[in-house]
Sequence to fold (418 residues):
Amino acid sequence: MSLAQWRERIPLANSWLLAAVFFCIPVQVAPAYVLSAAMLLLWLVEGDLRRKLHELADEPLVWIVLGCYGVLLLSLLWSDDRGWGWQTMQRHRFFLLFPLYFSVARREHFGRYVGAFLASIALCEALAFYNWARLYLWPGLPEGIRVDKSLEDTAPFVDRIFYTPALALAGYLAGHRLLFDVMTLRRRLVYGALLATTTLNLVIAGGRTGMVGFLALLALLAFQRLGRRPLVAASAAAVLVGAVLAGAYQGSSYFRSRADDAVDTFLHYRERPQYSVSVRLVYAMNALRIYAAHPLLGVGVGDYPKEYERVNAIHTPQWEPAWNPHNHYLFVLTAAGIPGGIALALVLGYPLRRRGPADGRERIRRAVPVLMITICLFESYLLRSNVSMMYMLFTAALWRGASPADPVRAASLRPLPA
Fold:
């Protein structure tokens, strides 16, 4: 095989590598870095760099994602603790990989990427159910694959902070295929089962933020399916959300205890300084105090822990200091002020508001940022590698070929498999 023929096969090989990175989302990020490095090497060997760079330069999302990273990086200039700041920037590596993913993604292979992600979720769910059965039903079972984080975690590879947002998106994708894709009865049963098992997995996983994100996507799915009848859509959304919450509360003592704990702690947070809900309230209040003192440019990405410790000692000394506010909006505002807030608004808001073709994926293009906008209220999720990777991967794959100016866009925009 000649070098030219070998190079012609690189785009297909890279697309398979990208699918493998999608598979890594609920697992671990270390293999994703290795796969991305191989992808980059092949991308360079393939050549035609001028065309590729021109395509990337024509894509607004590339500038938005790199701009958000750049704003945070620039805030190192007014950070005293640049070591911590650089460590924080390492958590944004997938921002830098976004152009590679966008360039490698192939519009016609989006179904392959979703399939790899859902297959990985199905594997993780099977392992999680085994772990749950061992914890609560049959303790004598052999030890399974389980994340070493807390006694209640049932997820196999990552804890519930990372795992449940991936479950939320997987549940939406399964529901989307059930409602909008024409398929055989057998395939409908497969995706119906995946939606049901994903919902159950969210219940036993105990991740409250992931559950909130999932409920937001369920409501969105109802409006997307019944958009021409808003009252019916609102009623369907309320029924779906209520049914999931009621079923989870009545059927899972673990979910019920965490829900009761969240409500009780919210009402009495001052008396419960070591509980997750109370610390998040205090983190938010102190982060707002930091931002109020540095509204224009923030304190710099490296100085949040030091500044928080100072504010915490004055206002809430009974609480332990925190390295981030567990709210991504407050993290960016305290780190980089108004420029950071604008950059984050573009990263999350532009894909939500941007118009794309009616190619069968327009609803998913809205769902991915809706999930991130929701869960970023409760955790600094773009600092969390698995979730940040998920957002960058899906955003790249969903918008590749969707712009009228994109030369990869097919001449005919007939609906493609979601």
Observations:
- Residues 134 and 140 are 7 Å apart (CA to CA).
- The longest helix spans residues 110-136.
- DSSP finds 18 helices and no strands in the chain.
- Residues 410-415 have pLDDT under 50 and may be disordered.
